[in-house]
Amino acid sequence: MPEDYQTPPAPPQQQEYNQQPLAPHRGTLILVLGIIGIVSCIICGIIAWVMGNGDLKEMDAGRMDPAGRDLTKAGKICGMISVILTIVVISIYLLIMVVGLSAGVMAQ
What we know:
Helix 2 (27-39) packs antiparallel against helix 3 and helix 2 (27-39) runs parallel beside helix 4. The mean pLDDT is 87. This protein has helices at residues 12-18, 27-39, 42-61, 69-107. It has a domain at 23-83. It contains four helices and no strands. By secondary structure, the protein is an all-alpha fold.
C-alpha cells in the first residue's frame, strides 16, 4: 500500500443521515401575528417580535429551516412597528392629558 494513500471522504448521502432534521419555520405565523399587532392588538406584536428573534437565532444556528427567513424578518419588523407605534400613541395621549390638566388648573 502506498504511503500517500488517503481515506476518501464520506459520500454526501452518509453525511446527510448523520444530521438532525431541521425544525420547521414559523414565518407565516410570525408575519400574521405582526400584522395583527399593527392593526389591533399590541400583545400579538410583542409575541411576533419575541418569536421572530428566537426563530432567527435558531436559523442562524442551523437548527431551523431557513426557507422562512424573509417571512420571519417581516413579521418581526411588523411586531416592532406595532410596539413602537403603541408607545408613541400612549406617550402623546399622556402628554395631552398632562397639558390639559395643567391648563385646567391654571384657568381656576
